[in-house]
Design goal:
Blueprint lengths: L11 E5 L6 H14 L4 E5 L13 H7 L5 E4 L4 E4 L10 H5 L9 E5 L8 E5 L15 E6 L12 E3 L3 H15 L6
Parallel strand pairs: 1-5, 1-6, 2-5, 6-7, 7-8
Antiparallel strand pairs: 3-4
């Protein structure tokens, strides 16, 4: 794991939690709320298993299986780049950011990559029975949990995991505080 924080031209904010806490559910609600407030959002999601977005028989699949890497396919509505990793090792978040054109977005949200050193909001639900992560990760900048009526013993901001407007406001404030000044 790298020692330095992730470097990117735009703010990068992660959402970390144990499986079953609702990371994807929250992000599918948060992204439209942020877009409604004028932010252009990119997302990097870490998958812990083998996955493929392509289908056998499609030209792009056949070209990729023939050895094309990266394989870029595009139309007037969408561009997709598929890169088959040479070795089976965890992807480097810093390298993945290089594939996102900073000029087309205002911020990157990251689901997963909880061991990486970059700002994250921890999501926690007591019903999962899992421990809190903030005590072991000094890159967690806030905790969104379902027990805000019983605050945790921390100086970190605590958000209600079920209060989308408050989480949206926090993310927008983070984006504004971490935006690069315009080039002169």
């Amino acid at each position: 794991m790298p020692l330095n924080l992730i470097q990117y031209e735009k703010p990068v904010l992660g959402f970390c939690a144990f499986s079953g806490t609702g990371k994807t559910t929250l992000l599918t609600q948060l992204i439209p709320a942020l877009k409604k407030r004028g932010l252009r959002i990119a997302v990097i999601k870490h998958a812990h298993h083998q996955f493929d977005v392509d289908k056998p028989g499609k030209d792009s699949y056949e070209l990729r299986k023939a050895g094309a890497s990266p394989m870029l396919i595009c139309s007037s509505r969408r561009t997709v780049i598929m890169i088959d990793n040479e070795t089976e090792q965890e992807p480097e978040l810093q390298e993945l950011l290089a594939h996102i054109p900073a000029s087309s977005i205002d911020m990157v949200l990251v689901e997963g990559f909880k061991q990486w050193p970059f700002p994250k909001i921890e999501l926690h639900r007591a019903a999962t029975g899992k421990p809190l992560m903030y005590t072991e990760d000094n890159h967690i900048i806030a905790i969104a949990h379902d027990r805000v009526e019983s605050p945790l013993d921390t100086e970190l901001p605590q958000l209600d995991i079920n209060d989308l407007p408050s989480i949206t406001d926090f993310v927008i404030q983070f984006s504004q505080m971490n935006a690069s000044p315009p080039a002169s």
